[in-house]
Amino acid sequence: MTTSTAVEAQFRMSDRTEYEAALQRLREASQAYYGDGDSALDDASYDRLRLAVLAWEGENPTEVSAESPTGLVADGAAPAGDVAHTTRLLSLDNVFDAEGLVAWGASVQRRLGRAPEGGFTVEPKIDGAAVAARYRAGRLVQIITRGDGSHGEDVSHVIGQIDGLPERLAGAATVEVRGEVAFTQEQFETANEVRTAHGAQVFANPRNGAAGTLRAKDRPYRLRMTFWAYGVVELDGESFLPAGCTHAEALAAVAAAGVRTTADSPAGLRVVADLAEAQQRVYEIAGMRAELPVGIDGVVVKLDDTAEQQSAGFGTRFPYWAIAVKLPAVERQTVLQDVVWEVGRTGVLAPTAILAPVEIDGSTVTRATLLL
Ligand code: IVH
């Protein structure tokens, strides 16, 4: 379920040529997002362009390109590896405001055939890179990136480098925890100091730094990152969770085993009775954003009752029982120093604004591509 707002009108496309061009921009931006991080589109513009593409595909179902990235996990840009995931490691659908959350609630109610009775959880959406971490007999044996959702890359070389993901659990459990690896702001600053000392380029922002650090096998230095679990799946048929436990209880079991969860983040995990309360908590977390030690790009609302989650079900890219309420892009003012013409990555001449350096959500911004 995706809602459409007036703000994305600027990206609306009227014919197949504009649609194909939009697909190309989406592909380039998502490849940059999962690659070097040097994307010409900020997150909010990316989301709007993606919504406009989805709207066009909805209105022109016979014209949808077989190569459209919108039907793929991570928009098809995350490098897939060769390790099969235990169960598909899915993404989340997005809404952008309170109306979107209400619309998601209605879609859940339709799928269940009644209003949910088990309440909702509300937790921060950590802006990092998704991984699955496998523990066997209490030992951390493998870390796998999300990849295309079915297969990910083995990045076990980062074992021992991630706060919140201990090499040994409190007990001898065999289990797979899923969550987000990110740099806290403090770890990000240290990471860039270490990189500067080694003559390497500073990271563009914490998210890209974390994705790059997970995949980098041959660096002469190690950078500390942090993990927050947001889910758990059973591994090798071993039971880990108490029967019939809720999402909040599942994360509590993970925390009791010694792994950090989204409940341990300063924005915490709340169990609420209804979506009005969930929306209230979204506002509260949004208000804390600037003071949080780690970047968040939204707030995730989930059905707490796992039986209700099963009834609501899964799509090919995301579960129907969870939704990300995206937070608006962080805005900052700065001084426009110059405008220069440059050939962009698509080979098109485009104006570029040269800006007085300004920090926006963990990145230092000195240039901006201007849309004609
Ligand atoms: S739930 C099937 N909860 O955001 C469950 N995801 O943009 C799907 N993320 O792929 C994920 N914080 O990597 C969930 N509290 C949170 C999250 C979270 C960050 C990531 C996750 C997901 C991506 C979607």
Low-confidence stretches: 1-8
CATH class of the largest domain: Alpha Beta
The second-level CATH architecture of the largest domain is 2-Layer Sandwich
Number of strands: 15
Radius of gyration: 21 Å
Q: Could you estimate the helical fraction of the residues in percent? A: 25-40%
Oligomer: single chain
Bound molecules: 2-(butylsulfanyl)adenosine
Sheet having the most strands: 5 strands, mixed
Structural class by sheet pairing and helices: alpha+beta
Summarize this structure as a short list of keywords or feature phrases.
372 residues, 5-stranded mixed beta sheet, 8 helices, globular, disordered N terminus
Topology:
Blueprint: H1 16-34, H2 43-59, E1 83-84, E2 94-95, H3 98-112, E3 120-126, E4 129-136, E5 139-145, E6 151-152, E7 162-163, E8 175-182, H4 185-197, H5 206-215, E9 225-234, H6 247-256, E10 270-272, H7 275-288, E11 296-303, H8 306-312, E12 322-326, E13 336-343, E14 349-360, E15 363-369
Parallel strand pairs: 2-12, 7-9
Antiparallel strand pairs: 1-6, 3-10, 3-11, 4-5, 4-8, 8-9, 11-12, 13-14, 14-15
This protein binds 2-(butylsulfanyl)adenosine.
Characterize the structure shown:
The protein has 372 residues and is α+β, with helices and mostly antiparallel strands. The protein has two domains: 6-77 and 337-369, no CATH class; 83-326, DNA ligase/mRNA capping enzyme (D-amino Acid Aminotransferase, Chain A, domain 1). The chain has eight helices and 15 strands. It has a five-stranded mixed sheet with strand order 2-12-11-3-10. The radius of gyration is 21 Å and the shape is globular. Bound molecules: 2-(butylsulfanyl)adenosine (IVH). The site of 2-(butylsulfanyl)adenosine has 15 residues, from strand 3, strand 9 and strand 12.
